[in-house]
Amino acid sequence: MSLIERLAVVALRQFDPELAHGLAMKALELGLATPQKPFTSDRLKTNIAGLDLPNPVGLAAGFDKNAKALGALAKSGFGFIEVGAATPLPQPGNPKPRLFRLTQDQAVINRFGFNNEGAERIAKQLSQRPEGIVTGLNLGANKTSSDRAADFAKVLTQCAPYVDFATVNVSSPNTEKLRELQGKAALSALLDGVMEARDKLKNSIPVFLKIAPDLDRPALADIAEIALTQKIDAIIATNTSLARIGLVSKHRSQAGGLSGKPLFEVSTQILAQMAALLEGKIPLIGVGGVSNAQEAYHKICAGASAVQLYTALVYHGMSLPSNISKGLDELLKQDGYSNVSQAVGSKINKWL
Fold it and tell me: Domain containing 209: what range?
């Protein structure tokens, strides 16, 4: 991290967290960030669900909810990006304050509640996205919807022409009863509708599924079975957590989803368990607590074909994705791998 970037990160942390994020987004929209090409090499190039990536380090959903900074994010060093979540209708989300820094824990708690400008406006933004970077959209459901399962298919139909993949997000803890859609019968029915909508698209795209870290083994087994039956293209493990074990920061008891460093171990364990259940039949993307190359490498060795991050940017700045990619390339080289795909799941037993 350069001196200027370090000063910017420190300065932004003096503001209310949601205001600071808004300022950072505005800076990106205005092109004030230093452009960086995604660091790549033969070791880092990979393919997930038919999508070619220059490196396996991606931006998780939630950072750019309304797809407003796509140009800057395409030049921020990520191998792929995911925006959203988008719901059919615009919604304000939960009352403020709803975002809390846990600086001592290198973590964040949020209870945004899918605040976004709605699928129509987000589709318009996505229709103008830059070429050259794989871009996905996180699909959500409106809080007041009478048929939340149908909401996912609606957003997919409206936005699919402008993205490379779409993620079904039934794992956010901030929309009441949304996680109930992870149950076996509900999830199967929801995915029936999504995959039917996908099959009607003029140009089909991969559909991913994002799961929670707060799942027991039987629930994971059910999700694995459904994902295989529905032919889901990838699983993202994991979303934010409701657990609060070991936190020391003053905001540790706030309601919402916990992300950042404290999530690393539990999310990696869930990742490994899902990898063991799927036996390589569906690729996984590891999310939760990634803030350096070693942690990204641990996720890959636990079964992830790629990783995503978001919270770590709050503490380490926008140079982080390039730094992780460069470090990951060196770690793969040290272990004698000619490509990252060879390392996937190589140390899964450590996390089971």
Answer: 36-351
Residue 7 lies in a domain: no
pLDDT in tens, 336-346: 999 999 999 99
CATH number of the domain bearing residue 84: 3.20.20.70
Question: How far, in Å, are 73, 158, 208 from residue 77 at the CA level?
Answer: 8, 28, 22
Distance CA 239, CA 140 (A): 13
Residues assigned a catalytic role: 172
| Pairing, β 46-48 against β 80-86 | unpaired
Domain count, the chain: 1
Contacts of residue 293, defined as CB under 8 A and 6 or more positions apart, other chains included, come to 323, 324, 325, 326, 327, 328, 330, 331
In a domain, 162, yes or no: yes
The pTM of this model reads: 0.96
Q: Is residue 60 assigned to a domain?
A: yes
CB 307 within 8 A of CB 56: yes
Distances in Å between the Cα of 325 and the Cα atoms of 83, 95, 107, 297 are 20, 37, 22, 10
Report yes or no on 209 lying in a domain: yes
Measured torsion, CA atoms of residues 76, 289, 94, 148, in degrees rounded to the nearest 10 = 90
Please state, rounded to an integer, the average pLDDT across all residues of the chain: 95
